[in-house]
Design brief:
This protein is of the alpha/beta class and about 475 residues long. It contains 20 helices and 16 strands. The protein folds into 4 domains: about 130 residues, Rossmann fold, CATH 3.40.50.2300; about 170 residues, P-loop containing nucleotide triphosphate hydrolases (Rossmann fold, 3-Layer(aba) Sandwich); about 70 residues, Helicase, Ruva Protein, domain 3 (Orthogonal Bundle), CATH 1.10.8.60; about 60 residues, Arc Repressor Mutant, subunit A, CATH 1.10.10. The strands form 5 sheets. A 5-stranded parallel β-sheet has the order 2-1-3-4-5, sandwiched between helices. A hairpin with a 6-residue loop joins strand 11 and strand 12.
């Protein structure tokens, strides 16, 4: 169970002692007799919640509240006042107070107000604890509590210590292979060097050599005059991550193999030999042994790259990680979209736990992103997720793929006299856009995201369709 910390700032010793007595069983309490002493250590040791008297000596509570808010600390502050001065209350709320309580304090009202304030920061606190657990020593954050992922991370910690041993990361699409590669780099002796990620599937045969090894100025048509460093040279004294290495062309495989055998290479258009020291980490979601049998991947390159293999379990194999990851993503999208989503409902959590993730962590992240965009309350609901359980009617949820009433029959019925397919498609597109706008209460930007469209494209199409 998460335990929250509360700072009590009041110049009356009896108030401080009384609140500490009432609250210490459930919360960690720290007490201060003035605002100055509380503020002096705030940035180093901020509590989760503050109970602050307005009528403090020297610096009053409202001025102290203004300093807290100026520091942009996301810290709920409940103001305490001995008399109900409406102007003072308004000043407090305008300055950023979460709420206020009158002296003498009613224990029931105090408890209710504290619970309400705690609920506003509960998600942030929970995610912070997760991140502190998995970000030790400034390592990349890989959220996971399952035994499967703990075993993987223990293995990673062991093999990362050798800076020269090539590592192959294997796992389905969306499992977080690049994040594992970054974790290997961060735990290796070359952690202070660069981490260079290369998508091997992105380069055609004619570009792979110049991209990997670089080129001298003027070595071919279109080359920069000053030349260019390749990815391998940029990764010198660091880690080169070859993502989707199974998609590397045959020519690219041959050039990479020559480099792995000697650690030396020539830039395109150069006769000068270069030598670098690079840690090679590769990744694939394909079965390399099958590709070797099919003649699509070199056997000798396989043995160079796969000195050590690390298999990343799918999200379906590490179901204990689903909710911690979902809450981590919810917190991140809260910040990105400037929303105040506090949690995920129990029904939505159960639906996530029962869902089969074909896209792994990436799919879960996309689900939470979309749900965060369209949520109408401060808690993500089952409907917001846009997925359905096996017991539900197996058709796409309206939140995931909006289907206006009557569209299904219209889409599959062709009258005897024929149909204008162009006008039909425009009609369908318009209905989806109208439905998306209803779901997002007229917000074009959110509606565009819901339909996976560019905002400008959405606006252009909407204006065009409404002129027809």
């Amino acid at each position: 169970m998460i335990r929250y910390s509360i700072s009590v700032v009041d110049d009356e010793e009896s108030i401080r002692d009384g609140l500490e007595l009432i609250l210490s069983e459930e919360y960690d309490i720290s007490c201060f007799s003035d605002a100055e002493s509380f503020l002096s250590g705030l940035e180093k040791n901020a509590p989760d919640l503050v109970l602050m008297d307005i009528g403090l000596p020297v610096m009053n509570g409202i001025d102290a509240l203004a300093i807290i808010k100026k520091k942009t600390l996301d810290l709920p502050v409940i103001m305490i006042t001995a008399f109900e001065d409406i102007n003072m209350v308004i000043r407090s709320m305008k300055t950023g107070a979460f709420d206020f309580i009158l002296k003498p304090m009613n224990p029931d009202i105090l408890e209710l107000t504290i619970k309400k304030a705690i609920s506003s920061i509960a998600l942030r606190k929970e995610v912070k604890i997760l991140q502190e657990k998995y970000l030790k020593d400034n390592h990349p954050c890989f959220i996971g509590e399952s035994k499967n992922i703990e075993d993987v991370m223990d293995f990673i910690n062991m093999i990362a210590k050798s800076p020269d041993t090539p590592i192959m990361i294997m796992g389905e699409t969306g499992t977080g292979k690049e994040l594992i590669a970054k974790a290997i780099h961060a735990r290796s002796p070359v952690f202070q060097g660069p981490f260079i990620a290369v998508n091997c599937a992105a380069f055609p045969d004619e570009l792979i050599e110049s991209e990997l090894f670089g080129y001298e100025g003027g070595s071919f048509s279109g080359a920069k005059k000053q030349g260019k460093k390749g990815f391998i040279e940029e990764a010198d004294n660091g880690t080169l991550f070859l993502d989707e290495v199974a998609d590397l062309s045959q020519a690219g495989q041959a050039k990479l193999l020559r480099f792995l055998e000697s650690g030396e290479f020539y830039k395109v258009g150069s006769t000068r030999k270069f030598k670098v020291k690079v840690r090679i980490v590769s990744a694939t979601n394909k079965n390399l042994e099958e590709l070797i049998d099919q003649g699509r991947f070199r056997n000798d390159l396989f043995f160079r790259l796969c000195v050590v293999k690390a298999k990343i379990p799918s999200l379906n194999e590490r179901r204990d990680d689903i909710l911690p990851l979902a809450k981590h993503f919810l917190y991140e999208f809260n910040k990105k979209f400037q929303k105040n989503l506090k949690n995920i409902s129990r029904e939505a959590q159960n639906l996530l736990l029962s869902h089969e993730f074909t896209g792994n962590v990436r799919e879960l992240k996309n689900i939470i992103e979309r749900a965060s965009l369209i949520a109408q309350t401060d808690v993500l609901t089952r409907e917001d997720l846009g997925i359905y359980s096996k017991s539900d009617n197996p058709k796409p949820n309206n939140m995931e793929k909006p289907e206006p009433d009557g569209l299904k029959d219209q889409a599959f019925h062709i009258p005897d006299q024929g149909i204008n397919i162009g006008k039909l498609l425009e009609s369908i597109e318009k209905k989806y856009m109208e439905h998306a706008l209803r779901l997002t209460k007229g917000n074009e930007s959110k509606a565009a995201r819901l339909l996976e469209m560019n905002h400008h494209t959405f606006r252009y199409k909407w204006k065009k369709l409404n002129k027809i």
